[in-house]
Amino acid sequence: MKLSAALAVLVELKGCLQFGFVPTLRAILRSPILLLRPRAISRIFMNHVWSVYGDGIDANSRYVKEGLVSANAQGVVLDVGAGYGHTARYLDHAKVTKYIALEPNVLMHSEIRQRANAAGWTEGEGTLVILPYGAEDVATIMSALGGPHSVDTIISILSLCSVPDPKKTICMLVDLVLKPGGQLLFYEHVLSPRVDVGWWQQFWTPLWRHAMDGCCLDRPTHEWIKQMDVWSKGELWGLPDESEEHLWWHRVGKFVKAG
Ligand SMILES: C[S@@+](CC[C@H](N)C(=O)[O-])C[C@H]1O[C@@H](n2cnc3c(N)ncnc32)[C@H](O)[C@@H]1O
């Protein structure tokens, strides 16, 4: 593996620190009690980083999202880790009835509302719901949605890397929140099958995770999903131009729950 590819994390971290460090420090100086809440600090930092990088990452992955989300999402959609609500613009009003944005970082909610409203999803019309929970809070999510099996499409875009206990969380969301016949659509960076790339992903994860609100580079999320025995069908694919040495190596998937 090329050294430049192996050290790419340092370049990314430098960029994130450049934009996130000063505003996060200012927030701590304004409210020193934050020092007792490292997760809150991480979310402030992540919000500033996403305000700079979110639109560009969305633009670069537009073709993936059109093929995955616009083509398949339908009914009631649950967007796990909605971020700034970029997913909203890929939802087809002829097929989707409601956009539920699940985002535990409440600093991002105004951005979700703004992008969802611009795409025609509004709380006033009952087509937009913003939930401030983590994906692992499955019981709370179910209760907010009025009971089990209420969602037709679960979407996760670059979010399962940050969810605690992801294998269990995905199983519970699919088992309890997704309707029979519903689908899970995901676009995630995952553990590479290349041993050398995987080694570097594992090496960098402790550092990257602490800086980036829990984001892990070394999760075989696509394998966990594929191995679940609840699907009637499933497809997995990659990005055509992606280097095998990419530390953020992506897999895209569409899986349908048995009816
Ligand atoms: C890299 S961003 C992706 C945002 C969005 N899905 C997109 O593609 O534009 C990851 C998101 O996951 C959220 N997140 C972190 N921990 C989470 C958790 N436990 N449950 C759900 N979302 C979480 C973060 O707050 C962040 O908004």
Automatic annotation (TrEMBL):
Gene3D superfamilies tied to this protein? Vaccinia Virus protein VP39
Do you know which CDD domains this protein is assigned to? Answer: AdoMet_MTases
Kindly give the Pfam families that the UniProt entry links to this protein: Methyltransf_23
> Which SUPFAM superfamilies would you find in this protein's record?
S-adenosyl-L-methionine-dependent methyltransferases
Domain of life of the source: Eukaryota
Q: Which residues form the signal peptide?
A: none
**Record's protein name:** S-adenosyl-L-methionine-dependent methyltransferase
What are the leading ranks of the lineage?
Eukaryota, Fungi, Dikarya, Basidiomycota, Agaricomycotina
